[in-house]
Write a structure and sequence with these properties.
The protein is built from 5 helices and no strands. With 114 residues, it is mainly α. It is elongated. Residues 15-43 form the HTH psq-type domain.
Length: 114
């Protein structure tokens, strides 16, 4: 089962919006690319104002570094390849189980069979 990755971008965006760091300095401190930070800020500001984002995010922000599960308003980022994804995650899991089961019982399947 894949790990759930915690994004550092929310903490970085908050420190930028608070005026603690500039985009360049925040990117260096939190270890992300400056262009990534700039695109995240741009996407956030398309949807809401800086004050609204800070108010909403600081209510649910905890100091452990993990993002709150209740925060449904924060932007969700995904891979650029999810648009071209053929199977859903559940279908991929089923296919993975099938391939492993076939392998366990030595039932050969080629790539075209799968």
């Amino acid at each position: 089962m894949p790990r759930k990755r915690v994004l550092k971008t929310n903490r970085t965006v908050i420190s930028y919006f608070n005026g603690t760091y500039s985009t360049r300095r925040a990117a260096i401190v939190y270890g992300i690319k400056r262009s990534t930070l700039q695109s995240r800020i741009k996407n956030i500001l398309k949807k809401r104002t800086k004050e609204k984002y800070l108010r909403k995010h600081l209510e649910n922000h905890n100091d452990s570094g993990n993002e709150s599960e209740a925060d449904n308003d924060s932007p969700k980022y995904s891979s650029k390849y999810t648009v071209r994804q053929v199977f859903t995650n559940e279908e991929e899991d089923e296919l993975e189980k099938y391939i492993k089961r076939c392998s366990d019982i030595n039932f050969w399947r080629t790539y075209t069979d799968i």
